[in-house]
Amino acid sequence: MQGFVAAGVLGALVGTAELMSRYRDRPSALLGVASAWFYVLLNTAASVGVLWIIRAFDWRFGSTSPDQTATLQVLVAGLAALALFRSSLFNVRIGDQEVGVGPNLILALLLGVADRGVDRVRAKDRSQQVTRIMRGVRFERARVALPAFCLALLQNLPEQEQQDLATAVESLAASGMTDTQKSYALGLLLINIVGPDVLDGAVTALGEEIGEPVPSPGRPRPQGHPDTEPLTA
């Protein structure tokens, strides 16, 4: 029984880690999404099921020690769900795309459901955050300085993600949106990578260099800011 519990826990951790990697700016948002819990439970059940199959066929993976065999069986079962869900039995061409038919199709559908559930929960909150942080920021002044400053604050961001961000910013600059719309879109791109707190701190630090931002609650507005009350004699 302990082996099944351990395999289930390992499978749950694998599923949780995968979901958290998709929502790095606020992983805690997953706690309130039922589809995310279902995805984790499915990974748990798959790991337990694989362990049952392994023990039913007495697969020892070359080990002769009973303790080593039990450990190997649990590890293989806990991690096998990840490989199982990404396998396909055959491919079907739909239009110009090759679609794999098999367990990976179920995974893609469940991830899509989880994505939509999280997005619906977080959409309003993200909109309020980005408009608060980026209000008053000029895109043309911030398009280079703000991403560079945010990325410099991080220490372990992969090079590929930095290149993807640069490409997205260039595409945003070439779009026909207004400066304000581009600024908000830039904020969303950066929130996805660094989170709202880091972005808020970066905008505050750069201040007038990228346009006067609206202060966060508790941050005093400078005298003469357009949102402050006019001085009276």
From TrEMBL:
Lineage: superkingdom: Bacteria
Keywords: Membrane, Transmembrane, Transmembrane helix
Extent of Basic and acidic residues compositional bias: 224-233
Region annotation (Disordered) ranges: 209-233
TM region positions: 36-57, 69-89
Protein name: Integral membrane protein
Organism of origin: Streptomyces griseoloalbus
Phylogenetic classification of the source organism: Bacteria, Bacillati, Actinomycetota, Actinomycetes, Kitasatosporales
